[in-house]
Automatic annotation (TrEMBL):
<dbReference type="InterPro" id="IPR033121">
    <property type="entry name" value="PEPTIDASE_A1"/>
</dbReference>
<dbReference type="Pfam" id="PF00026">
    <property type="entry name" value="Asp"/>
</dbReference>
<feature type="domain" description="Peptidase A1">
    <location>
        <begin position="1"/>
        <end position="92"/>
    </location>
</feature>
<dbReference type="InterPro" id="IPR021109">
    <property type="entry name" value="Peptidase_aspartic_dom_sf"/>
</dbReference>
<protein>
    <recommendedName>
        <fullName>Peptidase A1 domain-containing protein</fullName>
    </recommendedName>
</protein>
């Protein structure tokens, strides 16, 4: 089902989208693609969710232009370097052992930390990834 600037898709699924930049692949899981609080009913009566991936419309837009926004950015560490005339963007995969989701952050709260906050180990992991990106961009 297609809307004016995007698509509707089933609210549950086991698919993902892989975006490739050079040699780096970034996987966007289905849970990040189906916006759960933006729903509609399809012609057959099934519940569908708005896709987080959108495309611009208008005279100068083509279907090859995609707007991924937070569906993409929350699945990578990103460093923006504006110190060079052209600027640079660095990407790194999220670690598999850190607190990358709210349920782990809630576990941190149960252990005496603050709800919604990363543990110190996860913060160090994130900072080391960002530091490595900055070195790679230098």
């Amino acid at each position: 089902m297609q809307s004016g600037v995007g698509w509707f898709l089933p609210c549950t699924g086991n698919y993902s989208i892989t975006i490739t930049f050079g040699a780096r692949n970034v996987v966007i899981p289905y849970t990040a693609l189906a916006v759960q609080d933006q729903t509609a009913r399809a012609d057959d009566g099934s519940l569908v969710c708005l896709s987080a991936a959108m495309y611009p419309t208008g005279d100068t837009a083509t279907i090859s232009d995609w707007l991924l926004g937070d569906a993409f950015l929350k699945n990578v560490y990103t460093v923006f370097d504006f110190s060079t005339p052209k600027g640079r963007i660095g990407l790194a995969s999220l670690g598999s052992g850190g607190n990358n989701n709210l349920s782990n952050a809630d576990d941190n709260a149960a252990a005496g930390g603050r709800r919604g906050m990363m543990s110190s180990g996860s913060m160090l992991q994130a900072l080391s990834v960002v530091a490595a990106l900055l070195v790679a961009l230098a």
